[in-house]
Amino acid sequence: MKLNRRSLLTVFDSLLTAYGRQHWWPGETPFEIMVGAVLTQNTAWTNVEKAIANLVARDKLLPEAIIAARKDHLANWLRPSGYFNVKAERLKNFCRWYVEAGGFDALSKLDTATLRDALLSVNGVGPETADDILLYAFGRAVFVIDAYTRRLFSRLGQVPAEVAYEDLRLAFEDKLGPDVGLYNEFHALIVVHAKTVCRVRPRCGDCLLRENCPAGRGSNDCPRDLSR
DNA sequence: ACCCAGGGTCATA
DNA sequence: TATGACCATGGG
Known about the structure:
The protein is mostly helical. The protein has 12 helices and no strands. Helix 2 (30-39) packs antiparallel against helix 9, helix 5 packs across helix 6 (84-100) and helix 8 (112-120) crosses helix 9 (127-137). It is globular. The structure holds a DNA duplex.
């Protein structure tokens, strides 16, 4: 991996200049952020918002309420976010764990590695979901890796395309040093860059993030040369 | 009509 | 350990 601190910060600065600060995660409370992290798995955020709105409308955006709800009812509220049967089960799993563990205050006392392992022990919470929660709900210095991050830096020639999640996360954290504010903004900017480019020119063939786009050129609508 | 989305689990070899 | 199937709605 040719990853180094300077090249990472160069990309970060390009994105920050292009899009500005993002103030992530979209969500009012830590628990809402956690719910959003589960629901957004392989799903457009606009769909997640509708599902969360359904929960709020019924006063169900609470761990106890989700645990108590019938699974088929919960699945119907989650319907807009897709994979609703799977996500109903995952959300229940998560909430049972969350309540059992004593909620936010109790979990906040755990060190980051312990908390991460605990999150990963929940069926339905994988590495990215766990890291979203760690960074954005608990404010821990954990760099979130997603498909965009891997694609972007592999197209920039800085990491192998098939790099493992954990290897890439540790590489980012090693090069950048622990910095919650930077990690927060960086991941948000990568996602926003992907959305922006794709909204402006779907399947344009130019962007660095879309699966089927060759690297190398850029449209006028995105900060294409992120390495300068 | 097709492609994609802020993944994760499980069954198989 | 490494692929592949599966989950499903909604927007471009």
